[in-house]
Amino acid sequence: MPKLQRRLKPRTSLVLGRIAAHLPQFVGSGPPPTGFIACDVDLYSSTKRRARLLTLPGRRMLRRVPMYFDDIDFIFNHRFAGELLAIEEFNKENPLIKIDRWRGVRKDRVFVEQSWLDRMYVAHDLGAIRRTSLARAASDACSLDEVSA
Question: Which residue range forms the structural domain that includes residue 100?
Answer without folding.
Answer: 36-130
